[in-house]
Task: structure prediction
Amino acid sequence: MLTQEFIRTKRDGGAIDPADIAAFVRGLTDGSVTEGQVAALAMAVFFQGMSRAEAVALTLAMRDSGEVLSWPELDRPVVDKHSTGGVGDNVSLMLAPIAAACGLAVPMISGRGLGHTGGTLDKMEAIPGYQAMPDNALFRKVVKSAGCAIIGQTGDLAPADKRFYAIRDVTATVESVPLITASILSKKLAAGLGALVLDVKCGNGAFMDSPDRARELARSLVEVAVGAGMPTTALVTDMNEPLASAAGNAVEVRNAADFLTGASRDARLEAVTLALAAEMLVSGGLARDAADGMARARRALEDGRAAEIFNRMVFELGGPADFLESPDRHLGAAPLQTACTADRAGYVTGYDTRGVGLCVVALGGGRTRPGDAVDHAVGLTGLLPVGTRVDRDTELALIHARDENQAASARAQLRKAVIIGEVAPDKSPVIMGRQD
Result:
């Protein structure tokens, strides 16, 4: 295969052969394909798209660029979930142990935050001692004994995707639906799953800001995953406001601890978490339908089994044995906690959710480049649900910052992100649709 002719074919809208796609991915992995050629193909795909067959071929080739796990030692269905990213989205921290408590094995390979979206891996690393990048032996041991493990992607899983994504990130081609699809699914297929459930975010805090674009991505992910041999379903969920009342790393872990122990649960967060748990249980053959799955998931949460499994997972991956008993003793706290108050009376009618995420980034709780350090302690808590009535000086959120300068900047940014109007808004459903 001449790489330049391969690129030319896609540039001109032609069909590219699966064998040539596989050869291109081999070159992507071993470095024989240059960064310029990778960027050129990414741009060609951005404008010309890919057929489902091409997207399946790219996904499988990237899966096969490294190690592909299997789980012969497990006597339970292996199912995972992936979210396309949002603000205050700590669902994975509750979902993995809930699903494990119901009888699934959940080897959850998660990512770090980038841009305005938070990363599950950064949240778990807010727990002292937690090994987010264990060796393969420990990963397998924890999945078998606890039922779930939330870890980061090793260099051995889908390494072609890591290079491809880094080049897409600096060439304005991240938003290509076929390339997003192959990036997400290659890693999930490499994890050896029996089934996958997707949470495709939609709204002003998501990468897919319109329902049409979110449905397009959900459809692509499901069709390509099924074409690659992995049963998959997707929920489209609302990201026009933060999902949890907290945004940050340690503060979202604290929010998850309250959720698991029953101390408090944000309503929209609970709805999404249980809906995804139900999908996972149906996909794994452990529930008859969504209603049965929802009931099983709720029981695992209410009777404490999910909390017990989360605590066991944390301990077996190096964290404190009593984490859920004393989360505040273990999680880092920012030196300054100060209120951001409303500057007028009315109703919270909406959010610039991306702005909320960028507020956390500005505090130091996120990154704008992959190598940036993250301050796990900073963030926001007490974010109000859309529809809340506020008076002048009502607390919109509590800012967790390093100093007053940081807090003042966050306060100004957050006031712009919280939209206050005179009329109470209509309620919007948090589950916007389903794709199978």
